[in-house]
Amino acid sequence: MALTTFIMQLALSILAFPMYLLNFLGLWKWICQKWFPYFLEWFAVTYNKQMASKKQELFSSLREFEGPSGKLTLLEVGCGTGPNFKFYPPGCRVTCIDPNPNFKKFLIKSVAENRHVQFERFVVAAGENMHMVADGSVDVVVSTLVMCSVKNQEQFLREVYRVLRPRKMSSENQWSADEDEGQLSRLIRKSRDSPFVPVGIAGFMTVVSYGLYKLKYRKDQKMSIHLIHMRVAAQGFVVGAVTLGILYSMYKDYIRPRFFSVSKK
Ligand SMILES: C[S@@+](CC[C@H](N)C(=O)[O-])C[C@H]1O[C@@H](n2cnc3c(N)ncnc32)[C@H](O)[C@@H]1O
To answer: Where are the membrane-spanning stretches (predicted)?
Structure first.
């Protein structure tokens, strides 16, 4: 076991060595910044196809946020190659922000393909510091697939709040989300959405408890062997539950709506 672990660690270190070396030489970030836009351009085509109906639904209400000028001013943070442009309403004024300057030429291409939007400017900056955008100057902020790469999410959201134009919400538009939801009801809701997570945790706890209970009845079996068996069983349960969860989500999101014409929920 120890030997296998050592061999796997060694193989991983050898495979990752070029990345460490490039990072040490200060080149890794440059390579990623240079090549990521090409990857994203390719990825966005497939992703947009899969998400088209969702994006249409999400962006269909943008007009409701129009400012007093009668024009919608939109700020897209972490715009990438501009794959969201085609979902924006005609005439909306778009400012884009992204820390990677290499997206500029891809954005220009996207602007040319989406003449219905009025492109204002591209700012090279991270969402955590958007000082080039004035306080209360935009009607809507859009950010898709970005938060996972943001280092300081709290500061990012503070900046979003700062640049958004203050707006009175009508009672039916009021944000009714998790803020008022108690810990327990949130837990129940999340368990209902992804039942395999609590099942995995419960299975893990059960297997570990059973393994510990059986510890003193293990006869002449070595303690380390008993613990390894217990760990493998517990891990196996979690992996099994996660796999079932993924398969269930795929069924729920892609197979059921497509073949059984049931709305996604
Ligand atoms: C996965 S891409 C998504 C691009 C685009 N929003 C989309 O939906 O295809 C993530 C983007 O976030 C940008 N990004 C990373 N860190 C950021 C930060 N701190 N603030 C703003 N954008 C950031 C990246 O440069 C990249 O363009």
So the answer is: 6-28, 196-213, 233-251
Q: What is the DSSP letter of 141?
A: E
Using one digit for the tens of pLDDT, what is the confidence trace for 163-184? 999 877 665 555 544 455 667 7
Does the Cβ of 149 fall within 6 Å of ligand 1?
A: yes
What global pTM score does this model have?
Answer: 0.64
69-73, 145-149, 218-222: the lowest-pLDDT one:
218-222
Give the integer Cα–Cα distance in Å for 215 and 231: 13
The phi and psi torsions of 89 (rounded to 5 degrees) equal -70, 150
Tell whether ligand 1 has an atom less than 6 A from the beta carbon of residue 99. yes
Q: How far is the CA of 149 from the centre of ligand 1 (A)?
A: 7
Closest CA to 139 of 99, 178, 91, 172: 91
Ligand 1 neighbourhood includes 82 CB (under 6 angstroms): no
Question: What is the domain partition of the chain in residue ranges?
Answer: 19-163, 183-259
Q: Which CATH architecture has domain 19-163?
A: 3-Layer(aba) Sandwich (3.40)
82 CA closest ligand 1 atom index: 5
Strands (E), the chain: 73-77, 93-98, 118-124, 140-142
